[in-house]
Amino acid sequence: MQINILAVGRLKEKYLQEAQKEYLKRLSAYARVKVTEVEDEPFKEGISASLEESVKSREAGRLLKHLSQGDFVVALDREGRQMTSEELSEFISTLGLEGKSRVTFIIGGTLGLSEEITKSANHKLSFSKMTFPHQLMRVILLEQVFRAFKIARGEPYHK
Predict the structure, then answer these.
(1) Residues of the chain whose pLDDT is less than 70?
(2) How far is it between the farthest Cα atoms of the chain?
(3) pLDDT at 146
(4) What is the pLDDT of residue 159?
(5) Hey, what domains does the chain have and what are their CATH numbers?
(6) What pLDDT shows up at residue 35?
(7) Which residues have C-beta within 8 Å of that of residue 148, sequence separation ≥ 6?
(8) Are 3 and 145 in contact (CB under 8 A)?
């Protein structure tokens, strides 16, 4: 299975870079995993809603360039479906059984994802109703994907 993480912005903090590196190493035993970063769009705090949409739209354009025909796209969105770790494991396993071997998770920038991305995604996934920094969300996603593969294989994992 090919897992792609498509994310707006770079990991700036060393500890997050190290965490990503560690989970990519762990995941290599289960799947091919690739992280692609696209540039985040600069903006000033307190911009109008229409300017926010413009920022998200420009970021969406950068994200869409990295999607391939046949990708099963999962947009991370607070309004998406929340799952337990076991349900995420079942979800990923089912995709593989259905022949959807390229799964792309998309993480938005500071303002989130544009409607263009969330509406065109095959699935919307929420980790919480809370807001997380997008850089930290990448590490959380990698950890949960790793956990999903361990669960699917019946391997021990921390509950």
Answers:
(1) 158-159
(2) 49
(3) 97
(4) 60
(5) 2-152 (3.40.1280.10)
(6) 97
(7) 85, 88, 89, 91, 92, 93
(8) yes
